[in-house]
Write a structure and sequence with these properties.
It is built from 16 helices and 12 strands. By secondary structure, it is of the alpha/beta class. Among the domains are: 134 residues, 3-Layer(aba) Sandwich (Rossmann fold), CATH 3.40.50; 155 residues, Rossmann fold, CATH 3.40.50.720. The longest helix is centred in the last third of the chain and has 23 residues. The structure holds NADPH dihydro-nicotinamide-adenine-dinucleotide phosphate and (2Z)-2-iminopentanedioic acid.
């Protein structure tokens, strides 16, 4: 088996050189899915995983725009259309200086399995740009978004490819992108998700990823006769996912001790409450300020510059910032401090060594493709509402989100159950794989 996996990975590596994040994501899937393929005749000999790691289409384009000093700026835009076996390409757009082909291919690859797990008909895709929205004026962000969409619009559509938000792309950016698409096509369609509620967005979509992570973590804890109530929680990040993960933890009676941004972490020993969190949301989402400004209103808290939250003892860890933000040294600190469960809000935040350490120390570990699928799941519900020209209530969408997260947990149990523990990585990868593989086989050699 080891030889089959190594030969496969060598082939993928030689074809995708200098793409470490993509190889990391493929390796994790190959290690769990190839043994399953070998045991199942219908998949064996079909080169099915080799087909899945090859994007159906990659688009890369120039995005030129004029800044407030009237200087011409040039960025690079991308859309990776990874797999459309079970539905149109679906996945977010990331605007961050670290964006490159490797990062977007890893995200698009993960998205195939995540979208499959939601049970909704969505293929996998991802896109974005190395544009940095931080420190830019609203009009600069608008001009960038308009230029970006002027090229992207020809590749997407409500039945072809439906982008959404991710790092650096929130409701403001989705608004500018949607406005430009509508102008270019002269059509009002649900081509993007994460829209404002008054123009086709779904209630609960802003909350969905963060809430979903906590619902999944609660499912995992309940299955092991535990619950999140009265637990201490350390959360990294302070963007969309982190904010609503914190909100749901507070609502369920847990104590949230930390949030972070790329300059350091905030520690509030008393725990965040609804009022404190509302202040953070205003600082981050409206004033677009840095997290440490929190201390001006709440001086009893502390800010640790250039440090990671994982040095804080907590029963539960929710990494909600970015890939590879939690490495083996962080995992060792968390385990030594008694951490019981890790739910990934971000995509691939834990390194392979950190994951192995959690698993070998019986820490419940949920991979992002399962635990953060709530965001894209509600995007799928937004698409359904757009097609129906109708909208569901908050409660209807939230109930559906809870049901989807519980079903993903059940799928992980089905495919990941071992002799004395559940391997959620194996469970999520195989459950996600089976549905896509079956569709690809039915559709012939493509
Ligand atoms: P936001 O842009 O709203 O927030 C990102 C947060 O992560 C910020 O606090 C940011 O800090 C921090 N961060 C980003 N990059 C780095 C870095 N290189 N080092 C340290 N901190 C960093 O993004 P989201 O909350 O939407 O996304 C967070 C994660 O969740 C990503 O991995 C994303 O792929 C994933 N995700 C998002 C979904 C969604 O619906 N939005 C759905 C599923 C997964 P700073 O401001 O200092 O950069
Ligand atoms: O990583 C993700 O799942 C997202 N950024 C959300 C994608 C979506 O289409 O809602």
């Amino acid at each position: 088996m080891e030889k089959i996996i190594n030969d496969f990975l060598a082939q993928v590596e030689s074809r995708n050189q200098n793409e470490p994040e993509f190889l990391q994501a493929v390796t994790e899937v190959a290690e769990t899915v190839l043994p399953y393929i070998v045991q199942h005749d219908i998949y064996y000999g079909q080169n099915i995983l080799l087909r899945m790691v090859e994007p159906e289409r990659v688009v890369s384009f120039r995005v030129a725009w004029i800044d407030d000093q009237e200087k011409i700026q040039v960025n690079r835009g991308y859309r990776i259309e990874m797999n459309s076996a079970i539905g149109p390409y679906k996945g977010g757009l990331r605007f961050h200086p670290s964006v490159n082909l490797s990062v977007l291919k890893f995200l698009a690859f993960e998205q195939i399995f995540k979208n499959s797990l939601t049970t909704l008909p969505m293929g996998g895709g991802k896109g974005g740009s190395d544009f940095d929205p931080k420190g830019k004026s609203d009009t600069e962000v608008m001009r960038f978004c308009q230029s970006f969409m002027t090229e992207l619009f020809r590749h997407i559509g409500p039945n072809r490819d439906i982008p959404a938000g991710d790092i650096g792309v929130g409701s403001r950016e989705i608004g500018y992108l949607f406005g430009q698409y509508k102008r270019l096509k002269n059509e009002f369609t649900g081509v993007l998700t994460g829209k404002g509620v008054s123009w086709g967005g779904s209630l609960i979509r802003p909350e969905a990823t963060g809430y979903g992570v906590v619902y999944f973590t609660e499912n995992m804890l309940n299955h092991h006769n535990e619950s999140i109530k009265d637990k201490t929680v350390v959360i990294s990040g302070s963007g969309n996912v982190a904010q609503f993960a914190a909100e749901k933890c507070i609502q369920l009676g847990a104590k949230v001790l930390t949030l972070s941004d790329s300059s350091g972490y905030l520690y509030d020993a008393e725990g965040l409450n609804e009022e404190k969190l509302a202040h953070i949301m205003h600082l981050k989402n409206v004033e677009r300020k840095r997290l440490h400004i929190y201390l001006e209103k709440y001086p009893k808290a502390a800010f640790f510059p250039n440090k990671k939250v994982w040095e804080v003892a907590g029963d539960i860890a929710l990494p909600c910032a970015t890939q590879n933000e939690l490495d083996i040294s962080d995992a060792k600190k968390l385990v030594a401090n008694g951490c019981q469960a890790v739910g990934e809000g971000a995509n691939m935040p834990c390194t392979p060594e950190a994951i192995a350490h959690f698993q070998s120390n019986n820490v419940l570990y949920a991979p992002g493709k399962a635990s953060n699928a709530g965001g894209v799941a509600v995007s799928g519900l937004e698409m359904a509402q757009n097609s129906l020209r109708y909208s569901w209530t908050r409660k209807q969408v939230d109930d559906k989100l809870k049901e989807i997260m519980a079903d993903i947990h059940t799928s992980c149990l089905h495919y990941g159950a071992g002799e004395n523990h559940i391997n959620y990585v194996k469970g999520a990868n195989i459950a996600g794989f089976v549905k896509v593989a079956d569709a690809m086989l039915a559709q012939g050699v493509v």
